[in-house]
Each structure stands twice: as C-alpha cells, then as structure tokens.
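FW: tagging you since you asked about this chain on Friday. Here's the raw sequence from the shared folder, copied in full. Didn't touch anything.
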Amino acid sequence: MTGPARSHTEAVAAVGRALAAYETQAGVAADAALVAARRIATDAAAAQADRQRHLERAEADLRACRAEPEARCTAEQARVVQEQHGLEVARRAVSMAERAVRDLAASRVRFRSEAAALITPGRTMTSVKGAELEAYLSSVGLRAVASAGPGSSSAGPVSAQRPSGGGGRDIGGLPEGFELVALDLVDVPDPVTGRDQFGKGYSPEDMAWAFSAFDDVVLPALRAGEGSEYFASLDAAEGRMGTRSYSDTYSGFLGSDAIVLEARPGGRYELSENGRHRFWVAQQTGRPTVPALVRR
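HL: got it, structure written out here
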C-alpha cells in the first residue's frame, strides 16, 4: 500500500508506539528515582556509622586525657561536642533519606497507576481506530502495512477487527487457550434473561465495570508483559477491592472462573462453564466479543 492510505495507518501506529514508549519511560523514571533514593539512604547510613566511630574515638581520647593529672582536656572536650553534633546531623539525614525512600516507594506505585490510567485509554483508542482503519482499507482493496509495535494498529483488540475463521482469535498477552470470541457465534444453554437472575455477589453494573477494566487496563497490561502483582499494586494505589478491582477482573476472566467455550463444527461455540451472566451483560452493553477459554 502506498500514498495517503499507508501514511494514515503508519501515523496511527506511530501514536500508539509513542504512547507505549512514554508509559515505559515514565515507569523507568519512577524506578530510577526510587533507586537513587535508596542509594542516598545507604550513603547516609554509612556516613552515620562513620560519625559514630569518630565520636567513639573522641570520647576515648577525652577519657585518656582526663586520666592524666591536672590535664585541662579543653580541645578533647570540644572535639567530643563537635562529633556529637556531627552524629546528630547524620542521624537526621538518615531519617530524612529513609522517609524519602518510603514516600517514593508509595508514590512510585501511585505514579505508575496514574500514568497507566491516563495513557491506557489513548493506547486503546489508537489500537481500535487503527484496526478500524485497516478493516476499512481492506474492504476497499487496500491493505495496511504499518509497522507493528506496542499500541500500534496491528495489535488492536479483536472487537475492532473482523476475526478470521470461526470468530475466535488468539490475542497477544492472553494465556494459552484464551481467545476473544464473537458473541453472535456462541450458543448459551439456559441463558440469563434479566436483572432478577443476578445474585448478591456481582451486579450487572459490577460486570459492566469489569468488562471495561478488562479492555482498558488488564488486556493492555498483559500485552506489556505485566502479571497479577501489577494489578494488585494498581488496586492498592487506587484503594480498590472486591468486585471492582483489577485483580478480581484479571482472575475472573482468566482464572478459575473464566468463561469456558466448546468449539463446535461450523465455526460456532457453546458455553460449557461459567459466564451466563457475563454474556447477558455483554449483550446489554453492546460488546461484540468476550474473553474465554476455548476447548477444541
């Protein structure tokens, strides 16, 4: 593909890559700040230990001086006072350095979380728009060839692409066997028909939130190589827990409660375990796909 079509797709991909690079650089900067603070704390502790040794030597010299008959020991006394002052300054420096390390450790998690919250929607949008553009160009006989990369159009979610084959497709970052599967290709025995069939554990609103969190936070993080500890740190930074947490979303969609589909002849799927309520919410909110473990 040449001309404006290629320029447009490459521009979308470039924006996605730039956002991904910025997120990475922001994380690296936060990590570097914490490393530097820890190094300063280590140096401050070493300086305190050195001051302690100086004071002990000064005190020993003062005691030796006082053991001498009629010794005035003025210089030795002054030296002890000076070393005591120096040790107190060193102790304050250690306290400040240790407090800086604690604060930076906490703010590092919060900073990464806030950066992801700002950047991830942009990366998601560029992925979706890039995939939509590629699909449009393909429909008119052109093929997008923009370079792939984190956040680029070629890595867009299947909800913005036309899945090949049976409608399910492996997506980068998902565990082995998991796919995003088109809702209209799934048969659901005994489907949920309304809100009254939801129990007290998860409301339709909770599940709608989880779908959005999966799209906006979980899936992009998995593509970036993050795991369960990352989602736990985000929850801690944002004060999340329970049904509206990233950890719960991650484990709910990709853990023991994952939707399980059986692949059937003709490219269709049948729900075999879990997910009846999530399918209803997905249909009500207009989602084209759901993440599921596919058994073939």
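FW: The chain has six helices and six strands.
HL: agreed, and The chain has a mean pLDDT of 78.
FW: great, closing this out.
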